[in-house]
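Re: pyridoxal-5'-phosphate structure - here you go.
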Amino acid sequence: MKDDWRISNRVTQIQKSAIHEMTRLSKEVEDVAFLSWAKPTADTPEHIKEAAISAVKSGIVGGYSESSGLLELRERIVEKLKRDNCVNANVSQILVTVGAIEGLFAAVMALIDPGDEVILPSPTYSTHIRQVIIASGKPVLVPTIEEEGFILDVDGIKNAINSRTKAIMYCSPSNPTGTVFAEDQLCQLAEIALENNLMVITDEAYEYFTYDGHRHFSIASIPKMRKNVVSCYTFTKTYAMTGWRIGYLHAVEELIPQINKAHIPLAICAPVVSQYAALAALKGSQECVATFRKHYLSTRNLMCERLDRLNYVFEYKKPGGSYLMFPKILLEDGKDSATFCKKLLKEARVSTTPGVAFGPKGEGHLRLSFCVSEEEINKAFDRMEAYFR
Ligand SMILES: Cc1ncc(COP(=O)(O)O)c(C=O)c1O
C-alpha cells in the first residue's frame, strides 16, 4: 500500500483503530450487546437542541466565527473554569475547538517537533498516541501501576525523561481505566514538569464523572504551572454532545496565538451552530450533568456486581471516574485480547474493546463501557455468564 500510493511514514506507522474495527464487526452481529463505545447513549438535553435550532433560524450560524470562538462563549468558559476547575483564566487564554480531539491535536502540533518525546502514562487513550506520531514525535509509554488501580508511576515518569522529552500528555479521569489521578500525584507531576521545563497536555473529557469521593483535579490550577500546561476540555461527555464536535482549550495567553496557527489549518473555527449550543449548555441548568453522573454511578455499580459473579474470568479495579473500566482477563486465551474480543463477539454476541488498543500495557485486558442502559449491561453479562460457564 505504502509503495503504490506513497503514503507518508507518519500515517503508515499508525495501525487501524481496534475500536472502529470492533464497531464494524459488531454491526454484522444481530442483537449484539454493545459495551465497546465511550460515547454517551443519552441524547443531548432539549434546551441545548432548542438553542441551536433558534440560532439556525436567526441566521447567525452561516458564517465563520472568530477562530478562537465566540466571545460570549469564551466568557462563559472562563466562568466555568473558575467555578469548577479553580483555574483563573481570561478570554484571551481560551480557544474553542472541534471537540477535545482537535484541541489536543492543535496543541501537539504547536508544541512537538519531529523527534521530540512525549511521555504518556499507559494504558492510555490511543488517539493521544496517534496524535504524537502524526506530529512525528515519539510516544514514550510509561506503565501505570495496575495493582494500585492504574495510578501514575511518578518515579517511572521521572526516569523516562531525557534531553529529547518535550511534554507529558495524559487523560484524567482516564480512558480506558477510569482512574482519577489524585491531586497529590498531579502536584508531584507538576514539580517534575517544572524541574525539566516540560509542557503538560491534559485531556479532561470526563471531568464531571467521578465517584466514591474521587475528585477531579486540574493541574492548571497550580499557579506556578501557568506557562507549562495546555488543558483540553469538551462538551461531548458532559452534555452528551458527541456529534456536535465542540470543545475548548486553555493555555497561557502567549501560547494561544501559536496554537491558533495549528487550529486554523485544521478547522478555521469550531462549528458555529455548535458554539451556540455549547453556550446554552453553560448558561442553562446543570441538572442534566448531575443526572448523567447518577446514571453512570448506578451502571458502574451494576457492572462491578456482574463482574464479581465472573471472578473466574475477570479481575478488575473499581473505576473512580469516567464511564469505562478495564478488567484483566484471567483466562489463558485472554493474553491475546484482540482474538479474545472477536471470539466473544462471534460466539457470545457481546461487543467489547481489546485492551491492546490502548498500548502494550493494555494487552490481556478488555475495555468495558458503562455509559449504557442497565438492560444492556444485564444482557451482556447474562450472555457472558452462559458463555464462560
Ligand atoms: C479521553 C477522551 N478524550 C477525548 C475524547 C473525544 O472527545 P471529543 O468528542 O470532545 O473530541 C474521548 C472520546 O471517547 C475520550 O475518551
